[in-house]
Amino acid sequence: MPLPDLPVELLESILENLNSERSISAFSRANHHLHNLLTGHLYRHNARWCGSSALFWAARQGREETVRKALRWGADVQDGNADINAQGGYYGNALQAASTHGHEKIVQLLINKNANVNAQGGYFGNALQAASAEGHEKVVQLLIENNADVNAQGGYLGSALQAASRFGHEKVVQLLIEKNADVKAQGGKYRNALQAASAGDNEKIVQLLLDKNADINAEGGHFGNALQAASAHGHEKIVQLLLDKNADVNAQGGEYGNALDAASAHGHDTIVQLLINKNADVNAHGGYFGNALQQASAAGYDTIVQLLLDKNADVNAQGGYYGNALQAASTHGHEKIVQLLINKNANVNAQGGYFGNALQAASAAGHEKIVQLLIENNADVNAEGGEYGSALQAASAAGHEKIVQLLLDRNADGAGQA
């Protein structure tokens, strides 16, 4: 008897013994009759054993008919429904997947099937934050109309308002605020919506949040405050706006310690000048590199180094990963900056930081010209300390033969050389 002519009960019995979607799918494709007969079983199997992956996929891709089938057939199985609120993965649930990609009809379909609009999980934390991050205004409106919590916390960006603010979706920001989103809410990478907007370079959103009484000096988050966020990203107009609104130019915290360090680290010389004009402390300590001068020296921004020195930055200030600006510049091979610092009386034998001193740093990194420059300016070739113990050991460990010879020629003690 041909396979399609077998009784339905027998075909279903065969299916019960197939334990993979691939096998069921292949079996169902034997002919059109079998496909119509067995499609439901395939969806039921997916719902029961595969975490409703078909529903997630269809919601993400915008395949409305597949969503309908997954829901219809999964619901027929008592213990293995195509769970509309199933959690897991990047999107957390089917509603968040559809919301992320702006599939309005599928969002409505899932809501009609009692999807939890406030379900937590996934990268964005909830469906409203996902739609807000991507700027899907109609989906945001639909979720709010179905009682989505506009102040729900969670996810990478903390809240829907912070998400919309970070990515510059002005209309969504306005909509959320009209629906009583808390402009001062704390949480997420940027801690608050104002810092997120300042990082994202949307001046209108920054102004809107300030008009709604956002705290301009709120602390916390990746950048510590809104001014540091704008300074790090080089958003000059936002920096000016925040300063005009009395942002604390010397506020401490965040990745860079303060706004001046952030601008210096990324080479934003115009912003550095703006901040200094507003009395930023050029010698403020904080952040990974200790101070603005060390930040600029490590990154090789000689214009900013000169600007900071002209504004009386302490050339020998201690602290941070490299201990001082000279060691930072020496590590990264910025010869012009090394010379600038020496001309401003940098102590070539200052101790501290990862390498102990500038000569060991340059020797470890293989910067022969800087090694020569430091020695010519009376660097102690036998100074001890740091990761390698001495400049000679550092050069030897890294295989920089020319520097080894240069140090030996200058009477470096080779007794401990490996």
Automatic annotation (TrEMBL):
It holds the Pfam family Ank. ANK repeats lie at residues 50-82, 90-122, 126-155, 156-188, 189-221, 222-254, 255-287, 321-353, 357-386. Signal peptide: none annotated. Gene3D superfamilies: Ankyrin repeat-containing domain. Residues 1-46 form the F-box domain. SUPFAM superfamilies: Ankyrin repeat (SSF48403). CDD domains: F-box_SF. Keywords: ANK repeat, Repeat. InterPro entries: Ankyrin_rpt, Ankyrin_rpt-contain_sf, F-box_dom, Multifunctional_ANK_Repeat. This is Ankyrin repeat-containing domain protein. It comes from Dactylonectria estremocensis.
